[in-house]
Design a protein that fits this description.
Chain A is α/β, with parallel strands linked by helices and about 475 residues long. Chain A is about 25% helix and about 35% strand. Classes of the chains: A alpha/beta (about 475), B alpha/beta (about 250).
Chain lengths: ~475, ~250
């Protein structure tokens, strides 16, 4: 018992980050010279670009056909009518480089990564993180993965963790079977766009019964201005296996916009467990329009842990389709909206089998005119008896000119279910502030402590290093130091 | 024989008038507390006791319309709340607020750091906390809970005293810390208060009942009524109030 207040417990992430005064510009805002780039497509998108990407990658014909067909779908689909229609209408699809490659090579050794790119990832702390606490890493720079590695012991157990392009080359039949099976290009405009021009992303396969105890991480970096990054990730956890995948993302700040539009498909087979953690910290000129969806088979468990700090506009609703009896979905998200930001985040859970359960927790913080929205859909199909749903949305608004909205939708076609829904909106209370300030904290320190407390249910689910990083980022946001 | 330095009062309130939402609650309170002293401020509900404590700490909703408050010779009212705390003023809240998600341990560390102006090395902090936890009969599992979140009334009061012991204030204002406590908890709280006594510190005990004064002997007792101190005396005044009620003071004052 005497160890309960030992140092490791006493020192929380908040304390560890005290006094750190860097800003986004110096930590993430640098950008590299592009003159040494291997290839950069001209701006704009047509079938020629799609053909070129596919040929560069020496893809099989079936993939090339999917790409071309998806481009047509993209063109035929209207823009979403929710989120921020104003910001969406400002995207200039003709002013984007759809494929940019810094290096022809891909390395499994940091030493072989081109010096400039290596320096970028070193600044971002990736090789260090890999050594310390990760089971594997991929690093994507612009359109291509430039580095990947996986611990040998996991490789021997048959775990596959590689970039999606390599996945397609080396495991073509698996990819062909599952690619776009969870998110077809017809799903939405941006899923179609991704399917047409995708490049990079991760391919993960965890064999039956194998439990990957420590996380795999992917890091995504956009360097070029007016760049479109379209990674494509497919994770398959076979029966009884488990895996935790983490992604992080940053970009330099430019005056004109970049687009990040990923598609992430997860498949959890019977009894499998997938946790997918995101700490999104794009610069505030990046549109982050991402489609993420999982299929959860019998008695499996899928968890989306989704942190959104950066970007200009994020529209992202991680989804779980509970198709097997007893499957469980957990969606825990935090969105921080500062000046000029709109975080339209949420979740989607489809109960399509009996005794399926879902827990959705959304935490939104808005400040300095930022706007946060929770948009959620829970659907319980007829026959999904014994389904249990719990939705909890909390919003914290830090000043009078910021905004928070909740758009929850429930469609329930089955009577024998249990559904709980709770939503709160609060402001940082005068009494809470007074209490903390009476203990010597400045108003800013007090507010930060309250905000960190508010998102504690989220941070406590992160590996320690990420919790520290998240708290540090929020501290920077609170200090208004991030450009 | 007192040295001149000790003659500077810790707290010197002169003709203090305070409004809350336009209504005058304190109508000219004067009070001087010297180093080493404990003063008890007693009164009925609504007499203005909590208004005085909130004003001394600097709650933004309490507006001082006239009068002065000197703390160790300095104009206390000119200082923002956190500066008052850093200079050694502590308010033991009657109804401390819950801080969901904020761990007790983190909270204590941050406040000790803020008040001391320097981080406390864990080598020093841990045994210190342990010692005070034991004094207050608080289990160490407290440290991993969230501040006042789901705490019972007694637990909240003990956490307040624990903070007071860690922060070692020169002026501690205890706002009805004794209310709602059973006799065992009351003894523990009183032990905490007595532990803080030192010749260079002072305490202002705001209370409704005299029973805590069985365990903490005050130098002076004041009766606050309708925004004014209407009677002051020694510890015997508290006993008299207990026996005769506030009515007799009211009649005297009338």
């Amino acid at each position: 018992m005497s160890d309960t207040i030992a140092e490791k417990k006493v020192q929380t992430p908040t304390e560890r980050t005290q006094g750190i005064g860097d800003d986004y510009e110096t930590r993430f805002g640098f950008h590299d010279d592009e003159s040494a780039y291997d290839f950069k497509s001209k701006k704009g998108l047509d079938h020629e670009i799609v053909e070129m990407i596919s040929r560069y990658k020496k893809e099989p014909a079936w993939m090339r056909e999917i790409r071309h067909a998806s481009l047509d779908v993209f063109r035929s689909k209207p823009m979403p009518t929710w989120g921020s229609t104003k910001l969406l209408s400002e995207i200039d699809f003709e002013n984007i480089h759809y494929y940019v490659r810094a290096s022809e090579r891909q390395s499994t050794n940091w030493e072989d990564v081109p010096p400039q790119v290596k320096a970028t990832f070193e600044k971002l702390g990736i090789p260090e993180a890999e050594r310390k606490f990760l089971a594997g890493v991929t690093a994507q720079y612009e359109s291509e993965v430039v580095y990947h590695s996986i611990r040998e012991d996991l490789e021997k157990l048959g775990v596959i963790f590689t970039d999606m392009d390599t996945g397609l080359r080396e495991y073509e039949s698996v990819v062909r079977k599952h690619f776009a099976s969870v998110i077809p290009p017809e799903d939405n405009k941006f899923a179609a766009l991704n399917t047409a021009v995708w490049s990079g992303g991760s391919f993960v396969y965890v064999p039956k019964g194998v439990k990957v105890e420590i996380p795999l991480q992917a890091y995504f970096r956009i360097n070029t201005e007016n760049m479109g990054q379209f990674e494509r990730t497919l994770i398959i956890a076979d029966e009884g296996s488990s895996v935790h995948y983490i992604e992080g993302c940053t970009a330099p700040t430019y005056s004109s916009d970049s687009l990040h539009s990923a598609v992430v498909e997860l498949i959890a087979m019977e009894g499998a467990k997938i946790r997918y953690t995101t700490i999104q910290n794009w610069s505030k000129n990046v549109y982050n329009l991402v489609t993420k969806r999982a299929v959860a088979h019998r008695n499996s468990r899928v968890e989306w842990i989704d942190g959104n700090l950066g970007s200009k506009l994020t529209m992202k609703y991680p989804a779980v389709y509970l198709v097997g009896e007893g499957a469980h979905a957990e969606i825990l998200s935090v969105a921080f909206s500062g000046s000029g930001q709109h975080q339209d985040a949420g979740s989607k859970v489809i109960h399509a089998a009996p005794n399926t359960t879902s827990v959705i927790t959304s935490k939104s913080i808005s400040k300095d005119g930022g706007r946060g929205s929770y948009r959620g859909l829970v659907k319980v199909h007829d026959g999904a008896t014994g389904a249990k749903v719990s939705v909890k949305c909390d919003a914290l608004i830090l000043d009078d000119h910021s905004r928070s909205d909740t758009y929850p939708t429930m469609e329930v076609d089955e009577n024998r279910v249990s559904i709980e829904h709770e939503a709160t909106v609060s402001k940082v209370g005068e009494e809470q502030l007074f209490y903390l300030m009476s203990r010597g904290l400045t108003q800013q320190e007090a507010t930060l402590l309250i905000v960190n407390g508010f998102i504690e249910p989220f941070t406590k689910e992160l590996p320690m290093e990420y919790a520290v990083e998240l708290n540090r980022l929020i501290q920077l946001e609170m200090e208004g130091a991030v450009g | 024989m007192t040295t001149p330095i000790l003659e500077v009062p810790i707290l010197d309130v002169k003709d203090l008038h305070v409004c809350v939402e336009g209504k005058e609650i304190l109508k000219g309170v004067s009070l001087t507390v010297l180093p080493g002293e404990i003063h008890a401020l007693m009164g009925r509900n609504g007499s203005g006791k909590s208004t005085l404590s909130a004003t001394l700490m600097g709650h933004p909703r309490y507006q001082v319309t006239s009068g002065t408050v000197r703390y160790l010779g300095e104009d206390l009212l000119a200082l923002p709340v956190h500066e008052r705390a850093r200079k050694g003023v502590f308010l033991c809240f009657q109804y401390p607020h819950a801080l969901p998600g904020v761990g007790v341990s983190n909270f204590l560390r941050q406040s000790v750091k803020a008040v001391r102006g320097d981080a406390v090395p864990s080598k020093e902090f841990r045994p210190l906390v342990k010692k005070h936890l034991a004094t207050m009969s608080i289990p160490e599992t407290f440290m991993t809970r969230y501040v006042n979140d789901g705490f019972s009334g007694g637990e909240k009061k003990r956490l307040e005293i624990l903070q007071m012991l860690l922060l070692e204030p020169k002026l501690a204002i205890l706002d009805e810390t004794d209310s709602g406590l059973d006799i065992d908890a009351l003894k523990i709280v009183a032990a905490g208060i007595n532990l803080l006594r030192r010749p260079d510190r002072a305490q202002l005990l705001i209370t409704h009942y005299q029973r805590i004064l069985d365990f903490v002997t005050p130098h002076q007792v004041h009766v606050l009524m309708n925004g004014r101190i209407v009677k002051s005396g020694g510890p015997e005044l508290a006993k008299e109030l207990e026996e005769r009620g506030y009515d007799f003071v009211e009649k005297e004052a009338a």
